[in-house]
Amino acid sequence: MKDQLPILLLTLPFLAAALLLPLCAASTWINRLIVLAVFITGWIWGWQAWVPAQAQEVWHYHLGGWAAPWGLEIVLTPFTFFFAGWIWLIGMATWFYALPHWMLRHSESVKEALFNVCLFLLIGASLGLLWFRDLLALYLDLEILLAAMTGLLVVGQSKNWREGFDLFFRGNLGASVFLLALFLLYISTGTLNLDDLLSQVFIAKNGTVVLTAGILMAISFACYFVFPLPVFYDRLLIQTPAFLTGFLSSVMTRSVAQLFFVLLFFALNLPGFSAPLWLILLEYVVLVVFLSHLFLGFRQKDLLRSLAMLSVGQLGYLFAGFLLGNKSALTGALLESLNQTLTVAGLFYITGVLHPSPGPMPFSRLSGLARQRPWTGLAFIVFIASIVGIPPMGGSLGKWYLLQGAWEKGNWTVAGLLIAASLVSLFYFVKLVILLYEHPDDTSPVSFSPAMTVPFLALALGVLVLGVFHQTIIQHFIEPALPKAFQDIPMPNVPFLGQQVE
Predict the structure, then answer these.
(1) CA 329/CA 318 separation, integer angstroms
(2) What angle do CA 117, 119, 121 make, to 5 degrees?
(3) For the whole model, what pTM was predicted?
(4) How many domains does the chain have?
(5) In the predicted model, is pLDDT for residue 487 greater than 80?
(6) 201-232 pLDDT, tens per residue?
(7) Are residues 256 and 392 located together in one domain of the fold?
(8) Is the pLDDT of residue 121 over 90?
(9) What angle do CA 408, 410, 415 make, to 5 degrees?
(10) The domain containing residue 386 runs over which residues?
């Protein structure tokens, strides 16, 4: 059984969704027990797979025994395995936060079961984005992710779910452009396996195909990330429970970002390929657009809108790492992706317990929170400090490695943008801390179950662990995911994470 753990871990969420779907009309508690059993099973299998995954560094699993590139391949690296653990943890926390939401709606047991089905589909699709090495499988994962995300929004919203379908159509537009890039690469190379595709492109050095595929992937990426922009989805933000928005902004957004940034890094950083000036300028414009959302987010008066913009702004750090492309910058980008997954989810979870019903939440609700609820206030400060980059939070080390990468490459423009974003964020961080500890106008304490604090306190602890033990995490999880040329191994400088081209 241990040899089959990669496929078991990947298919477990899909099997759970298939089991829950026919039981929608069954007892609510039966469905909840099944969900809990699935999560526990996932932790047990994950623990059993951890030792061989770490020992092998790269665990290749071929479906049906067919080796790549003819068959489908699942690849587990220490980094993707670690990332998958965060996804599973945040998925379980989202289900936990959803329980009070459904308990208040006794007559909606079918909607609760459908919610759990979509939740597991989204978790499974996110794991597939991390582990599959076939472009067609990745495309199908993106489609499953879109359908599951739409289902979560439609089932989870209290009313007016039109924005969910709007998101579905926009996402499918992005998936169609991604499919076009896939066809172009297949026509040029005759393969869909990422490693084999890399070998063919590396040998041919066809700059036109690389540039065209990279641009199409960038357009597809832009279509996917319209969702977090509150300028397009104001009503979606205020009608969707905060725990659900946090899951989508954390797990879904970071999984898709991880996939697209890796593909863009592979496509646009081909050795010997010189990017035209207009493309370089466009990359810097995209970086500025991302980072500007940090400034806009801190200036908002509504907390949900602010968190949505901060979620988008943090993607700029990932983009900066792959834009710079050296060892320090890529290390910082991967460390940032781990940190952001925890930070974004934690902030939305805190918002969800402070304001359980969907709707706007003004920043004034945070007044005196740290006095009334010290642990909740402390967790909120940890998450925001990680966004700003204050040691010893996990986000501080990611940003430090990004700055080091810009310094090593002599890219003072990116370095200046990163420093400016941190300084602006620091100014608003100080104002936020003062708000959290000031005397509130309303002396009545914020009331919620102490059990609700456990998930976001665990995520806050994870942010601290990423910062304090960053050297261990980089050595054992991140460095094996870097290009082989960055690992002091005499192999060609191939721009694909953790792979070797002969």
Answers:
(1) 9
(2) 70
(3) 0.87
(4) 2
(5) no
(6) 767 666 777 778 878 887 887 776 654 454 55
(7) no
(8) yes
(9) 90
(10) 292-468
